[in-house]
Amino acid sequence: MGKESINIYAIAKEAGVSPATVSRVLTKSAKVSKEKKDRVQALIDKYNFKPNVLARRLSNTESKTLGILSSDIRNPFYASLFVECEKAANARGYTVLLCNSLGKNELEDSQLEGLFEQRVDAIIQTGGRVDELVSDEEYVEHVNKIADSIPVIITGKLEGSECYQVNIDQGHAMEILMEYLIELGHQEIALVGGRKSAKSTYDKQLRYRQLLRRHSIKFNKDWIVEGESYDIEGGYECMNRLFESNKKLPSALIAINDFTAIGIMRSIREHGLEIPMDISVASFDNTFVSEVPTPKLTTVGYDYKLLGETLIDVAINAIYKKDPPRMQLIKSELVIRDSCKEIVVK
């Protein structure tokens, strides 16, 4: 083990104990068996390991700080959620420390570790690898090592983890939007943006197909158009591909989020079509972005205040070992604006 790799996890692994046990030896904050204590202390001496804030993790002193690890605060969804989390935390006597992983796994790992080293009392993760349909086993293990000492709350899923989950009911969100479009007379509806390796997108795609069957509407595989990113350019690229395919266009498009909807609308206009006269567009999230374009977007929104307060309350209750629910779902609501029109059956 090189000197640069010496940390509490490396010592714990070599000693065959948990990171919490190493912390207890370093802080002398709890009883550890003599055999384990001797093993850990021998490695501490061997590598001349110096305790830092991480080593004092189990000192039982609250920092009154909650760490929030976000995928990308530039996305209006994460920005809206963070603001509500911060307001809820402040109202309860806590401050928050924000990090952004920017879609980079290495950065996500280091920031998760960094928040722990900063002695936050709990970590809330929104986006990133907790959004993946198939959980990364190494990341689950990393999270579980931290969850041994402090609560970890996520807005996605990590199979095999000890996290608390507070999620948006994605299936319900898709259902209320699809029912609205079908009530307007739309039978040709596309779902544009996102990738099915992300759980939220997978759940939406699954419910989309279920609802088509429920209403006896034929599924058209060409009308699920996936992209790599969830931003404006991602939506623009997806819609351009749909045009370039020379396939029949649907009467309505559902964008995977407000951000991609803006790109979709730009592409539609560049191709000489009007919204909603030629094609209707709807989306998810009801962020400030949905009120920027002309026409304003019909979108499914969430109670960001409730979502933020629930995340913070779960974190604080878990800190004080009040046994909050392991999983909670937040419902959605439809916000009708100007981007969808009724189909008149002749």
How many E strands? 12
CATH level 1 name of the largest domain = Alpha Beta
CATH H-level superfamily title of the largest domain: Response regulator
**Numbering strands along the chain, what is their spatial order in the largest sheet?**
2-1-3-4-5-11
What do the pLDDT scores average to?
A: 89
Instruction: Tell me about the largest β-sheet.
Output: 6 strands, parallel
Number of helices: 11
* Topology-level CATH name of the largest domain: Rossmann fold
- The proportion of residues forming helix, as a percent range, comes to 40-55%
CATH architecture of the largest domain: 3-Layer(aba) Sandwich
Number of domains as seen in the coordinates: 3
Strand content: 15-25%
State the distance separating the first and last CA atoms.
Answer: 76 Å
Specify Rg, calculated over alpha carbons: 24 Å
Query: Low-confidence runs (pLDDT<50, min 5 residues)?
Result: 53-60
Structural class determined from secondary elements: alpha/beta
* Strand and helix order: HHHEHEHEHEEHEHEHEHEEHEE
Q: How would you describe the shape?
A: elongated
